[in-house]
Amino acid sequence: MHSKVVSISGPAAHTAAVYLARAELKPVLYEGMMANGVAPGGQLTTTTDVENYPGFPNGIGGSELMDAMRAQSERFGTTIITETVSKVDLSKRPFKYWSEDAEDQEPNTADTLIVATGASARRLNLPGEDQYWQSGISACAVCDGAAPIFKNKPITVIGGGDSAAEEAIFLTKYGSKVTVLVRKDKLRASPIMARRVSTHPKVEILYNTVAVEAKGDGRLLQAISIKNVKTGETSDLQANGLFYAVGHEPATNLFKGQINVDEDGYILTKAGTSYTSVKGVFAAGDVQDKRYRQAITSAGSGCIAALECERLLAEEEEACPEPIIEAKKSEVNGVILPEYKSNPLL
């Protein structure tokens, strides 16, 4: 199968697909099948309530939002394939790619590729974590911090870097108290962020401390068991919220060695664009955004990628137009005249 545009996964990919399909470029979208351990649709499918996506005053479920995006993509003619792309060859165009269980077969090809494979929050795999994930445990304070279950309740943040400091300070708006667990004896955060979080009246920092178990009533998180790594002493800490700030893993293993990524594995793009180091490959969403990681910013970057992809294809068509092809002949006043078709994009 050859396509002009192939888009891979998530809200950024669906946004790109809507724009590209409306431009009659017939995009193909691979939504993945439990890629990175997540259902088709990406990280949003693991979120119960999304309250900060415009247009939904009463909020919307993460899976419901992704279902709506998928339906909109299909409405305009996007071909959606529920398979995971497991191998790519970006050495020349058209690009080659293979899906899982088909790597020994002939590859599919694409003139352009939009990578929107996202990033997954690192999890600690504590006992009880799966049970209380999105029922008190989260990896996004901005996404979930305002939920009613956290209002005026004790909250814990795990991490020692800038992200942990920022999330702890953010969560003081909602929780009665925020406790930060730091494995080492000092913060890794920048001096200014370390000072802000350590002097905040609603924040307490427990150094040399790790979480060892999440506990609750079977429905919501109620406490976490913690351990001092120096003394070995364990205790229970009341916590109705537990937020991980221990980093994310961008889903870029598929492209490493073929496209430029930073030291954390995020795809590098030209500032303010979706252009990558490979012409014809564009990146959108969390796979290239280590700072914001929001559904709305992913969607916006998907729009950017689609417009830039469409522009590239149009410029290439203009530079190398399709040859005029004699389609059929008709007769006018006894004279047979050729009828031509030209580039449909012109």
Give a structural overview:
The protein has 7 helices and 19 strands. It is an alpha/beta fold and 346 residues long. Strands 1, 2, 3, 4, 5, 6 and 17 form a 7-stranded mixed beta sheet that branches. Helix 1 runs parallel beside helix 2, helix 1 packs parallel to helix 7 and helix 5 runs parallel beside helix 6.
| Percentage of residues in strands | 25-35%
Mean pLDDT over the residues:
87
Helix content: 10-25%
- Given the structure, what is the number of helices? 7
The largest sheet is: 7 strands, mixed
Q: Indicate the radius of gyration in whole angstroms.
A: 25 Å
- What is the overall silhouette? elongated
- Element string (H = helix, E = strand): EHEHEEEEEHEHEHEHEEEEEEEHEE
Outline the low-pLDDT stretches.
324-333, 335-346
User: Structural class of the secondary elements?
Assistant: alpha/beta
- In whole angstroms, the N-to-C terminal distance is 25 Å
Question: What keywords describe this structure?
Answer:
single chain; 346 residues; alpha/beta; 7-stranded mixed sheet; 5-stranded parallel sheet; 7 helices; 19 strands; 23% helix; 28% strand; elongated; disordered C terminus
Give a concise summary.
With 346 residues, the chain is of the alpha/beta class.
Secondary-structure map:
Elements: E1 2-8, H1 10-22, E2 28-30, H2 62-75, E3 79-81, E4 85-89, E5 95-99, E6 108-115, E7 119-121, H3 129-132, E8 137-138, H4 141-144, E9 154-158, H5 162-171, E10 177-182, H6 191-199, E11 203-207, E12 209-216, E13 221-228, E14 234-238, E15 241-244, E16 248-250, E17 281-283, H7 295-319, E18 325-332, E19 335-341
Parallel strand pairs: 1-2, 1-6, 2-3, 6-17, 8-15, 9-10, 9-15, 10-11
Antiparallel strand pairs: 4-5, 5-6, 7-16, 12-13, 13-14, 18-19
Helix pairs in contact: 1-2, 1-7, 5-6
